[in-house]
Each structure stands twice: as structure tokens, then as C-alpha cells.
UniProtKB/TrEMBL annotation:
Pfam families (UniProt xref): PIG-L
Domain of life: Bacteria
Gene3D superfamilies: LmbE-like
The name this protein goes by in its record: PIG-L family deacetylase
InterPro entries linked to this entry: GlcNAc_PI_deacetylase-related, LmbE-like_dom_sf
PANTHER family assigned to the protein according to its UniProt record, in alphabetical order: BLR3841 PROTEIN (PTHR12993:SF29), N-ACETYLGLUCOSAMINYL-PHOSPHATIDYLINOSITOL DE-N-ACETYLASE-RELATED (PTHR12993)
Annotated SUPFAM superfamilies: LmbE-like
Length: 306
């Protein structure tokens, strides 16, 4: 597997949907950029405030109101600040957007211009030449939405930074992530110390998170998967009346009922009408979803790139 070359000129922006993603996804790379003399910033999209089961367990409460969520989010944000110091960064290198946890897809849909403007402000201020964001296929809805947000914000930007995607949730196929970070034992220990700072998450999920942290840190070049232009789903007829289709491009995000979406059925499946698939106007992303409340946090269909 090829390794990633970094230098004193590397300006790395790590995009983390929640506190702990910066450590799990990029804890080794952050250290290696700093060791090479480069500069790193961490952009935290949410404070991880919608995390009810660890909060109920640790605080010994059942109901969680808005004030409780804010308190929990502030605690997790403080944990992230301590974690980045274990990786060699000052606390000032961490910036939090404070967007809704488990709500990035809705935020992207309902405030597209606002989130795009905020993201581009960060890009202009830091001017990264390397960005790491979650993989599009990550099963957590906030992770997939974070990937879409990054790709849309970068559309039309010149010069275009290198954009790498990291996996966290789901069974990642190692062959799909050909860029491997070779770590020294000391760097791995610093990554584990950073993870230990996320005490709220380690209480219930410590063994799983430690396994993730000890697994090789891998990346893929974002956009390398390609797309056929054809929707990858043929949903059963019994669900179609409730299904919705999100279509996200640099021009905006549209939310259709499946039966009202502008598409045709061809031999290779459903195809959107009136949307460029050739990349001339930027990337096109689609998400199939049921807009129902559910205790299951992970996506069933998720986002796909056309």
C-alpha cells in the first residue's frame, strides 16, 4: 500500500462530525504532519450532544432536556480539546461549528447556503492543501453528510486541495482504502492517550473504540469510487410511498418523495432527469431514506455519488 507523503508545507484540515472522530480517523496522520513541520486544524461539525445512552448511564437519568444536551455537548467538546493536545496540537487548533448532532443531513438540506458559506469561510481562513473527511459510505448519517458537505464546498475551488476520506463505522474493505499510515509505537500510544480523553465514549464503548484506534489508519482519495449516473437502488413497491430522495449538488439540495422525483426507469435502473452526471457543474450526490423517527442511528441506504 502506498504511504502518504507530508512535509513542512502540508496544511491539513481534519473534518470530524463528532468528538472522537478526529482521533479515530486521523490521530496518526495529525502527528505525522506536525512532526514534518506542517500545520493542522481540526473542524468539529457537532459537539456530539445527541448521545443519549452514554449520558443516561453516566448521569443516572432517563429524561434528557435541551439544557442536558447542551451540558453534554460542552463536556464532549472539552474532551476533544484535551484529545488534540495529546496529539500535539494546541486547543486553539480545534474549531467547533456547533451544528446538530444526528442532524447534519437535515442541516445540509434546510440551510444549504448557510452551511456552504460557513464551510467556505473555514477553507478561506486556513487555506488547507490536504483535507481529511469521513468516507461517503460510512453508515453513520452525520458522517455521510459531512463528506457531501466537504465535496460541495470544494466544488469550483482553485487550487483544489487533496481530499482524503477515512472510514469509521461499518465493515470497511481494506482494499478500498489504499493509502496507509505507517505509525511508530510512540505515535500509536499518543493516539490511544487521545482516545482515552473521550471519557464519555469510553465508558460504554471503550473496547470497540480501542479496536478501531489500533486498526491501521487508512484513506482513499475522495471521488475515486466513481459513479454510473444510475441510482443504485430498486426499492420495493410497498415502501415507495414513504421513501424520500435527497439530491445534492453545488447548486443546492432538493428533497423529493420517491414517486415525485424527476427520474426515469431504464434498462440499468432509475436515472435522474435534468441533473448533470459528468462533473462539469460539480459532484452529484443522492440519498434514499425513510423520514421516520427510529432508535436505529445508522443509515440503511445512505448517500451515493453519481
Amino acid at each position: 500500500m502506498p504511504s502518504l507523503s507530508v512535509s513542512a508545507q502540508t496544511r491539513l484540515l481534519v473534518v470530524a462530525p463528532h468528538p472522537d472522530d478526529e482521533t479515530l480517523g486521523c490521530g496518526l496522520l495529525i502527528q505525522q504532519v506536525l512532526a514534518a513541520g506542517g500545520t493542522v486544524r481540526v473542524l468539529l461539525l457537532t459537539d456530539g450532544d445527541n448521545n443519549p445512552w452514554p449520558q443516561r448511564y453516566i448521569e443516572r437519568r432517563v429524561g434528557i432536556d435541551a439544557a442536558g444536551r447542551r451540558r453534554w455537548g460542552a463536556l464532549r467538546r472539552d474532551e476533544a480539546a484535551q484529545a488534540v493536545t495529546q496529539l500535539g496540537l494546541p486547543v486553539s487548533a480545534l474549531e467547533s461549528m456547533g451544528w446538530p448532532d444526528m442532524g447534519l443531513t437535515a442541516k445540509l438540506r434546510d440551510d444549504t447556503s448557510g452551511v456552504m458559506a460557513a464551510m467556505r469561510t473555514v477553507l478561506r481562513a486556513f487555506d488547507p492543501n490536504l483535507i481529511c473527511c469521513p468516507d461517503l459510505s460510512d453508515r453513520h448519517p452525520d458522517h455521510g453528510a459531512a463528506h457531501v458537505l466537504c465535496r460541495l464546498a470544494l466544488a469550483g475551488l482553485e487550487p483544489l486541495p487533496v481530499l482524503l476520506a477515512y472510514p469509521v463505522h461499518g465493515s470497511a474493505d481494506a482494499s478500498a482504502y489504499p493509502i496507509l499510515i505507517d505509525a511508530t509505537p510512540e505515535q500509536l500510544q499518543h493516539k490511544l492517550r487521545a482516545l482515552a480523553e473521550h471519557k464519555t465514549q469510553m465508558r460504554l464503548s471503550g473496547a470497540r473504540l480501542r479496536r478501531l484506534a489500533l486498526s491501521p489508519e487508512r484513506y482513499m482519495r475522495a471521488g475515486s469510487q466513481g459513479g454510473s449516473g444510475c441510482l443504485p437502488w430498486r426499492p420495493p413497491a410497498m415502501l415507495q410511498q414513504w421513501l424520500r430522495l435527497l439530491v445534492a449538488t453545488p447548486a443546492g439540495v432538493q428533497d423529493f418523495r420517491w414517486k415525485d422525483a424527476p427520474m426515469s426507469f431504464e434498462a440499468d435502473g432509475y436515472r435522474l432527469q435534468g441533473v448533470s452526471h459528468d462533473g462539469e457543474r460539480g459532484p452529484v450526490f443522492v440519498k434514499l431514506h425513510l423520514d421516520w423517527p427510529s432508535p436505529w442511528i445508522f443509515d440503511h441506504w445512505g448517500w451515493r455519488a453519481l
